[in-house]
What does this fold into?
Amino acid sequence: MPLTRCVAVATLGAMTAEAWSVEMSHPSLPEWVFPPPGGFSAEDLDHIPDLPAHTELIDGSLVFVSPQASFHMRAVDLLVFGLRRTLPRDLRVRREMSVVTGRTQRPEPDLSVIRAAAEQGPEQTFYRAEDVVLVVEVISPESKDRDRKRKPSLYAEAGIPHFWIVENDSGRPVVHVYELDEVTGAYAITGIHHDRLKLSAPFDVDVDLTEIDRL
It folds into this structure.
């Protein structure tokens, strides 16, 4: 028997998390796809059975990721290797670990720089926003609106001081660098870097972006 429900739909591919009337001719989807009243909480992600890897929580709804493209993988690798060369001893680089930014918010940046003291053990599944110094999003076609708009606002509201967006320019990474303006509570752009990423904040950074061709 058809079942019609008005729910905040878990994002699939390029869809955004918003209210839709979903009609299903049979219960083909698991119940956990549909958020409970008030949405899922950040802690729920650790207890939902058979949840796909790298599922995010945005505004209380589940967001599923698409298969990773070659550029995306190589851009993340390039930055991980580059940042670790100059990383201070009290910081760590982590890829694809979720960050709790609020009760119903648990996005997963492509790359994070965290304080070493935030490490709690090998079974840890997330970091708290207050322990994160930098988050990086590599733009994918199906998530570009989320990566450019909603997720930056979540990171800024949580007080994460540094945020980068990596765009694909004909196979080469272009890094847009932002810092949190404590007066406005929003990110302000400090530079756009094409061939070389050279910065002094949040620590000394010097990455040859053209090296992506060798990865």
In short: Residues 70-214 form a domain with the tt1808, chain A fold (CATH 3.90.1570.10).
